[in-house]
Amino acid sequence: MTLNFIGIGLNDEKDITLKGLELVKKADFVYLENYTSKLNCNINYLEKLYGKKIILADRKMVEMDAEKTILQQAKTKEVAFLVIGDVFSATTHMDLFLRAKKLGIKTKIVHNASVLTAIGITGLQLYKFGKTTSIPFENENVETPYDVLKLNQENNLHTLFILDLNQNNNNSLTVNDAIRYLLKVELKRGERIFTDNTLCIGCAKLGSLDQIIKVGKASSLLKENFKNGMHCLIVPAKKLHFMEEEALNLYKQ
Ligand SMILES: C[S@@+](CC[C@H](N)C(=O)[O-])C[C@H]1O[C@@H](n2cnc3c(N)ncnc32)[C@H](O)[C@@H]1O
């Protein structure tokens, strides 16, 4: 019948919209995509609010096996596919949407907040972000994030680094890991793109009441503890609007 793509926001079970909740309550099957991001609450809280059993969907189920599960069921049943944050802000879900379209399955979309907009709380203007880049766990020979930073800096744009999630041990890279990674590539490349003095913004658990935002030089943020939860790192453009500067001062260490 319908494959409902529902963004459930960034923090806990209460961030779903009323529209999203109505669709979940009507669903025959409820999937939660759990490989691109994490909520700050246990899945039991979602099940209690929804009154539904949640099926955890890993990357293999969504990207390889959906024809036998999610898409198969959506031909005749109401299926809710829950995405933490907003629906299409991770690269992978458009693929599922297009596959549903090709099979003639009806779809509905319910949007929600995303890390891509929640970073507006730092005061940096969203219009002035350049390309977003992701730092993977296995980054020994990876330099793309550094190249993206270089390109954005040359164009006076802010850079958002999203940080890899390791599905096996439920662990994710931290702001500190991200800074160490950039300093390592800097050393290898011998350039002056990301040094100990580069201004950085470390964010954790954005959208929750105990979110952490810290602004300081790379060397000083390295010593900060951003605690558990989803982390991201921002390197602002060199030239800031006065209001961006004023906002960043709120979070200076
Ligand atoms: C691939 S993005 C997923 C985007 C998600 N669908 C959304 O709309 O927010 C996931 C990455 O964004 C960052 N992230 C997600 N939620 C966050 C939060 N609440 N606070 C800080 N960083 C977050 C983390 O680096 C995480 O690994």
Describe the secondary structure blueprint for this structure.
Elements: E1 2-7, H1 18-26, E2 29-33, H2 43-50, E3 54-57, H3 59-63, H4 70-74, E4 78-83, H5 93-102, E5 106-110, H6 115-118, E6 133-135, H7 144-154, E7 159-163, E8 165-166, E9 171-172, H8 175-189, E10 199-204, E11 212-217, H9 218-221, E12 231-235, H10 242-249
Parallel strand pairs: 1-4, 1-5, 2-3, 2-4, 6-7
Antiparallel strand pairs: 7-12, 8-9, 10-11, 10-12
The structure holds S-adenosylmethionine.
S-adenosylmethionine binds near residues 10, 165, 206 and 207.
Word description of this protein:
The chain is an alpha/beta fold. It folds into two domains: 2-113, Tetrapyrrole methylase, N-terminal domain (Cobalt-precorrin-4 Transmethylase, domain 1), CATH 3.40.1010.10; 116-249, Tetrapyrrole methylase, C-terminal domain (Methyltransferase, Cobalt-precorrin-4 Transmethylase, Domain 2). It contains ten helices and twelve strands. The chain has helices spanning 18-26, 43-50, 59-63, 70-74, 93-102, 115-118, 144-154, 175-189, 218-221, 242-249, and strands at 2-7, 29-33, 54-57, 78-83, 106-110, 133-135, 159-163, 165-166, 171-172, 199-204, 212-217, 231-235. Strands 3-2-4-1-5 form a five-stranded parallel β-sheet, sandwiched between helices. The chain has a five-stranded mixed β-sheet with strand order 6-7-12-10-11. β6 (133-135), α7 (144-154) and β7 (159-163) form a beta-alpha-beta unit. It is elongated, with a radius of gyration of 19 Å. It starts with a strand and ends with a helix. The site of S-adenosylmethionine has 23 residues, from β7, β10 and β12.
